[in-house]
Amino acid sequence: MDLSNKVPLLQGHRRRLIVGACVIAPAAFVVLFPDVLGKRLGVSSGALELGSLLLLVGVTLWLARGARCPSCKTNLFWYGVNHRFGNWLGWLLTESTCPKCGYTASDRSEGQAG
Ligand SMILES: [Zn+2]
After folding, report:
1. Phi first, then psi: what are they for 71, rounded to 5°?
2. Residue 50, in any domain of the structure
3. 25 with 51, same domain?
4. Would you say residue 89 lies in a domain?
5. Quick one: DSSP state of residue 10?
6. Cα–Cα distance between 77 and 82 in angstroms, integer?
């Protein structure tokens, strides 16, 4: 039984991570397969690919912004993408201990706006 009341390190970033992942997935699809959507919408697949790529880069940078360990300031978004590539979102949403410094978040901050 775990009595330490661990909470995810990025508890306050949950909404941002989920919204970002919902944008990244379709944007990545369009970047990889621009012809599929381009033909359906009747627009140039090159413009669609470029627009989706810019959206992908922008949302990725937005996700990475502020996703830091409160103790050592390691950017946990980039760490998760690099080390947990297959499940970076799940890892970011659940990890309660910093892999770099061992800092563990607890729910002492309960009541804080999330
Ligand atoms: Zn840390």
Report:
1. -95, -60
2. yes
3. yes
4. yes
5. T
6. 9
Measured in angstroms, how far is the CA atom of residue 99 from the centroid of ligand 1? 7
Q: How far is the CA of 97 from the centre of ligand 1 (A)?
A: 8
- Judge if 73 and 40 occupy the same domain: no
Q: Which pLDDT tens digit goes with each residue over 33-50?
A: 999 888 888 888 899 999
Residue 75 Cα to ligand 1 middle (Å)? 9
How many angstroms separate the CA atoms of 102 and 105, rounded?
Answer: 10
Query: What's the average model confidence in pLDDT over 80-109?
Result: 89
Does residue 2 form part of some domain?
A: no
How far, in Å, CA of 96 to CA of 6, rounded? 6
Range of the domain at 84: 69-109
Output the pLDDT for position 36. 86
CA of 51 to the centre of ligand 1 (A): 35
pLDDT, tens only, 5-18: 889 999 999 999 99
